[in-house]
Amino acid sequence: MNMTFERKLTIPKEVKEMYPLDAAGKALVEKRGEEIRRVFRGEDDRFVLVIGPCSADRDDSVLDYICRLRDVQEKVRNEILIIPRIYTNKPRTTGDGYKGMLHQPDPAARPDMFKGIVAIRELHMRAIAETGFLCADEMLYPENHRYLDDLLGYVAVGARSVEDQQHRLTASGIEIPVGMKNPTSGDLSVMMNSITAAQHRHTFIYRGWEVHSEGNPLAHAILRGYINKHGQSLPNYHYEDLTHLAALYAESGLQNPGVIVDTNHANSGKNPFEQPRIAREVLSSRKYNPDVRRLVKGFMIESYIEDGAQKIGGGVYGRSITDACLGWEKTERLIFDVAETV
Hints:
Helix content is 37%, strand content 16%. The protein is an alpha/beta fold. It has a single domain (12-324, 335-341), classed as Aldolase class I (TIM Barrel, Alpha-Beta Barrel). An eight-stranded parallel beta sheet has the order 2-1-12-11-8-5-4-3. Strand 9 and strand 10 form a beta hairpin. Helix 3 runs parallel beside helix 4, helix 5 (165-171) packs across helix 6 and helix 8 (275-288) packs parallel to helix 10 (328-341). The radius of gyration is 19 Å and the shape is globular. It starts with 11 loop residues before the first helix and ends with a helix.
């Protein structure tokens, strides 16, 4: 094999023993986790915002951003449930570019996977302790999920991973909401098949073990737009898209029908400043049709302290080093607008 095996990494159980969640943190995880589950079971009609930077690149600015969200959450607590994004591993379309804090705790340094594992666990633990939030992360590597499984409130499976068998089977054994994105091709049958697989029981190999999953009734859809055969971004958040998805759910027999609308990515053509407009349209669709209102549980929004994006080492505090994000002032205004409308 043309690979160098550098070292065997510490297993999740040992990392959790080295960096344990204290009793107060465990109690908060249970309380906040149940609040999130209630929304996806339809027992709480608050609107979910899975919101935050495209990628978590440094502790100080990410925690600064989440602390700002904490203040806003208190003002909109009756209408909105905020789940901050701490996305610590990033899929790359071509394999090039910054792959997230898991790979590089310091974006300017060489990859160090063990330091990365420790860094992402500590960041999620600090978010819980300092803000009371349970956060979201993307399950880029299913076998790594157990390093964080006691700390998360929400998991997303990306557009390039949603057809992968291991992602689907791992999602079936997770006890928190898992959002399955439509693939980059836009084929909703792939996404619906993924949700079906995640909601069923399975026996499979995971981290060298034969395991049995019970199925995850909170697996649901994420609409993120798609790319056509000419490489053009096309949206799938319009009224007709939402009613079509509602019909697919009605035919499927799946539990807890729900969708989170991703307001960036192909839905916005990666123009983050389109996100408020997209949110307004979806909220209008919810008002018009009660089926759409029940189906649309919330938004996924890419937002950070400063507008736009920069290259690694760009030097602007709180500006994304991956996809461009909506800055804080526009984000705060968007959250209040959503709270007034839902």
